[in-house]
Amino acid sequence: MKDKDFQQLVDREFAPLTWTDAHHRHTLNSIHQEEHPVMKKRIRAALIIAAVFLTMSVTALAAGLYMPSLQDFFDRSNQFSYIFGVPPKSVDASAIVVPVELRNDVDLVELHVSQMYLTDKRLYFTVTAAPKEDNTLLFDGHMTSIVLDGKEVRYWHLWDTDYNLYDVGSVQLDDPDANDPYRSVEHVSCYRDPESGAVTNLYALPYRAEELALFTQPSNTLTFYFHVDNLRNKRGEWRRLVVSFPEMKRIEVPLEILTHE
Amino acid sequence: MDSPSEILDQLMRQHGSRLLRLCAMNLRDASLAQDAVQDTFLKAFRQIHRFRGDADPLTWLTAIAINVCRDYQRTAWFRHVDRRVEAEPLPAAAGFVFPDHTVISAVTALPPRYREVILLRYYQNMKHREIAAALRISERTVRQCLSKANAMLREQLKEWYEDEG
Fold it and tell me: Is the whole model's pTM more than 0.80, yes or no?
């Protein structure tokens, strides 16, 4: 395929589809609203922050599965700088560990949300995908090595396997009002367990201060959507993993939030 | 120095239509593409402090647009489509009939990752390194995706490829 030919074809076929002045104005209006000055207001009231939590059984991790710490993830992230256009980050020492409860309704792979950390800016969480069948290998976009016929073979991408974990979807809160298309999950880094083939990714979900309550309401849940490509039958399937916060206590913490005038 | 909104104003004028067509091809829906491009610019406005001056603005915007499209695809899937059946293309935007061209149809029918790589390489004219950064995958994976996607397209578009010898 030639770049120029394809560009000309698409531009010709889609010629009626243009960015109009109406689109332009509408977007500028939205930007103008974003620029509206905000007033910082310090509220010392009883804002809720997650504290903790009854123990719960994290049954997700298979015995012996290596689970890196939050610092490990950040160290690796700084090696590769995965986040497009963003310099490497450092771990927030104030991160609070949040126990999580898991529900898994995936059959090609087992999905586990195994670690959560809450800072004042982001909710960090790890998602582990473990293969359930011998012929399942997971793609994580990174260097992978497997042993074939007694020899170690290195792959960047496992296209020739039967199943392929294609992508990990974004997080959406169950609260429909919190469905913000502008908020996206940042992929910090990942680890592959050489023994089990499981892939663990660390993600960061930025949130605004006023959303904090959403994370801390009892019985609140986060829903993770995964897309799994089945290379055998050429079909992609969406799967869901629900993580619930079983029980929380509330503590009073001074919190600075932003409110529009 | 231009303000962020002035910079976005220029970017919209320069790249709005190209991003709109990219999103339309990727989402296979013109109406959704219009929303996606607006969201892309809003997101760019919010992240403009992250934009590196030496980077190509179109490459940066394209990376954002691809992620917005992914969010839309996920959301649309769950709102409108039974998860156990394959997704059907959403209705065409009013006033615009989605092109029924062989090449367009073949590209839009590719699996999502292949489609993204083909669009970034051949429509946005991005380098392998830029595609890898935008999709957060390795350059080798980009090359493999391109190879696989081209092989699939070549099966259906023999005339389109035959000039390459």
Answer: no
